Amino acid sequence: MIRARVDARGRMRNSSQTMTDDKKPPPSTPAALTHLDAQGLPRMVDVSAKSVTARRAIARGRLSMSASGWQALASPEGTGKGSPLAVAHVAAVQAAKRTADWIPLAHPLPIAGVEVAWTQHDALHVLEVAVAVTVDARTGVEMEALTACSAALLTVYDMLKAVDRGMRVGPIWLARKEGGRSGLIENPDPPLISA
């Protein structure tokens, strides 16, 4: 049996590794990993020198379900909990506003707006959500859009799980990002498949 432990830097170590292994310098950190310092320790990026600019991010995600789940989505009175999409819409807004509480190194941001749009792919029993988040800030809102998208899908799952415990959440992806130093980034939608 291999036993593992976590060192002070949060790295997994086998118990068979010697103390001399712990004294080796940490692996070099690629410049792209901005949430790690030179020693490989987590840090919150200092954005104070950046300009405040308009930023927007759109995240998309999908929830696949059975025919019975799809029927419950279409007639929410059968769930006894109300409209899954209405509650999930509120969950998305709330999640966007509270992202820094869930993602440890995310900056708390003054969210300017959250838009939620649903697409129902009837033939495949796939529900798709798109969440757009806007802000005027020194850092982007990708994590807020992704967190909001996740919360929306998980809320629908929660409201329909009595009818369908085989639902599948995902994929969830950043579809578009605007503003900031990197400018416009667009990612293609993955193929649409059923559960």
3D architecture notes:
- The chain is α+β, with helices and mostly antiparallel strands.
- The chain has a domain at about 55-185: Molybdopterin cofactor biosynthesis C (MoaC) domain (Alpha-Beta Plaits, 2-Layer Sandwich).
- Helix content is about 25%, strand content about 30%.
- The chain is built from five helices and seven strands, in the order ββαβαααββαββ.
- The strands form two sheets. It has a five-stranded antiparallel sheet with strand order 4-5-3-6-7, covered by helices on one side.
- A hairpin with a 4-residue loop joins β4 (about 110-120) and β5 (about 125-135).
- The protein is elongated, with a radius of gyration of 21 Å.
- The protein starts with a strand and ends in a 9-residue tail after the last strand.
- Residues about 1-25 have low confidence and may be disordered.
Helix tally equals: 5
How far from one another are the termini? Answer: 37 Å
Structural class label: alpha+beta
Strand tally, please?
7
| Average pLDDT reading | 84
**Cα-atom Rg, whole angstroms?**
21 Å
With strands numbered from the N-terminus, the spatial order across the biggest sheet is 4-5-3-6-7
Tell me the series of helices and strands, N- to C-terminal.
EEHEHHHEEHEE
Q: CATH first level of one domain: which class?
A: Alpha Beta
Per the principal axes of the C-alpha atoms, what is the gross shape? elongated
CATH architecture of one domain: 2-Layer Sandwich
Low-pLDDT runs of 5+ residues are: 1-26
CATH superfamily of one domain: Molybdopterin cofactor biosynthesis C (MoaC) domain
Helical residue percent band: 25-40%
**Main β sheet profile:** 5 strands, antiparallel
Q: Which range does the strand content fall in?
A: 25-35%
CATH topology of one domain: Alpha-Beta Plaits
